[in-house]
Amino acid sequence: MGRWRAVTARQLAREFNQRDGNRRLEIYERRLRALHELGLVDHARMLADYPRVHWLTREGLRTVDLTGSTGAPRIAELEHDLSVIDLAHHLAEKQPSHLIMTEQEIRRTEPNPAAGPEARLRSDIEMGAGRGTGGRAFPDLASVVNGSDVWIHELERSRKSRPRLTRIMLSYAYAPHITGVVYWAYPHLLEGVRAAADEANISAEKAGREPRIVVRPWEKP
Description:
This protein is an alpha/beta fold. It has helices spanning about 10-20, 25-35, 60-65, 80-95, 105-110, 115-130, 160-175, 190-205; strands at about 5-10, 40-45, 55, 100, 140-145, 150-155, 180-185, 215. It is elongated. It starts with 6 loop residues before the first strand and ends with a strand.
């Protein structure tokens, strides 16, 4: 739960059942209620057509030795955040050898060259995403292959202007430690995201860099 801003009980059940065998959803809901009573987990029903979501409290973070701020979901980003969890599950199924890193995990690591290789890699991802965007930026997900090749994954469910989207894409294209970027776009955004990716790839190629932006469709599970 500490990897995300918030999760549903069904998403937790899917994660654990994949590894430990099938258990009824009610078992996870009962355990979440117990964690809430202990003050380790908070929960809320934020939207009428969405299930209750759960996240770690500050005490919960300390219990599992995590630093940084608590997740605390935001209504405006709830659908996006829950969809990113589904995307991460999809990637883990398709690419089980890849290390999947979430935005919360990347935010949690401070840039520190003396830290271990994974911490250094996390800070590189965060710093690379900020170039050319006017400030720091954090990707939705990163998948690391063989401990070094970094693929960024961004889920697009709301419309951005093409200049803004192209600028963000180019910030990844110019980051030397990022192998490539996959933009997962909802069907109604696919055409615009592909146009921005084409523009970014052409600009990168003219500057002597390899085209690194890939666009794929994403359907809500």
